[in-house]
Amino acid sequence: MTLKTNTTSMKSLQTQLVHDAHDERHHGAVTPPIYQNSLFTFETVAAYENASLDQMNRHVYTRGNNPTVYELEKKLAALEGADSARCFASGMAAISSAILSVVKCGDHIVCVDQAYGPAKRFMTEYLPKFQVATTFVDGTSVEAVRAAIRPNTSLVYLESPSSLLFALQDIQACADIAHQAGALVLIDNTWATPINQNPLALGVDLVIHSLTKYVGGHSDALGGAVLGRKELMEGLFHNEFLLLGSIMAPQTAALIMRGLRTLPLRMKQHQESGLEIARFLERQHWVASVSHPGLPSHPQHQLATQQMSGFSSVFCFETQIDAERMKQWANKLELFRIGVSWGGYESLVLVNATGANSDRVHVRLYIGLEDPADIIADISAACEYAGIPCHP
Ligand code: PLP
What ligand 1 atom has the least distance to the C-alpha of 119? Predict the structure, then answer.
């Protein structure tokens, strides 16, 4: 994507995200208008017929292309280094459509065992009706991925880092293994965002994002995206995108584009605040371990620094303090809301959401855009209330 300016130089991605590359001036409106229309009309029957033959590149019907959604798709593709992107109504719509665009009846998928729960459920409970089977593997082991490949494996599904336990996969090594076996590789890149990780450059074929998280950034819109090279995206457009009909609404695209304008700035702040809170927790005697890929104590920290250029602010810690007391602690937090999802302005907490049967309590934190000093004070005050000794 190039920005239209009165100079010939290419602008950096951060600048391109702030400016819009719209072709028309729209009466000088500083943000492009929202094209709130379901269809596009033509001067002649011949003009309509020509456009219908090229629905992928023309505006015929909003279930295929809409100028507002397309503006967002161009920006996302530029950020991920993809030939093209398609925006969906949710991250799950992007995930299920991307998987369906790759597999056929009788195929096999290798998926990392820590992938997002509903994505796993799509593989275990929905795809079997098309005789598509899935093997779940420990994604931290390249050998486990290799060993799970079968002659009919057509897809290797990655999520790195994973969003509940924050384990990584060696993306390039997994892509090599899949390609040697003739399979494609898909990754959920939601945790890292396109600011901190570009998996297409590491050999991945399709990237998906839940735009509901950091990219939207304001907890007011749901969205998803699939990105990749031209031929894969063409197949996906004509089949899963147009036929399943889960395109993002133009209003939503405008909201997510607003989020995208500040994504690089927000991610800098999230990284800084997230690491500050993670280091603070690591110093606490009541915390048994902190799992944040940006901490040197993370078992895959070196891999994290190789394949990512920065870190986001969702992570977890474990404690031997009993679950009841940790729930009292979470209830007392003032700056953390209790709820699913992440990526907005507000900090969030979940206690024991992994479903794992462990003698330790698992706490997932999402660090929002509050002042980190206030967040630390909030955690300390909740500790005092719950009778947990906390150190500065
Ligand atoms: N991928 C990850 C890592 C997620 O955490 C989520 C949602 O929590 C999704 C995908 C699905 O996104 P959505 O909720 O937009 O459907």
Answer: 10
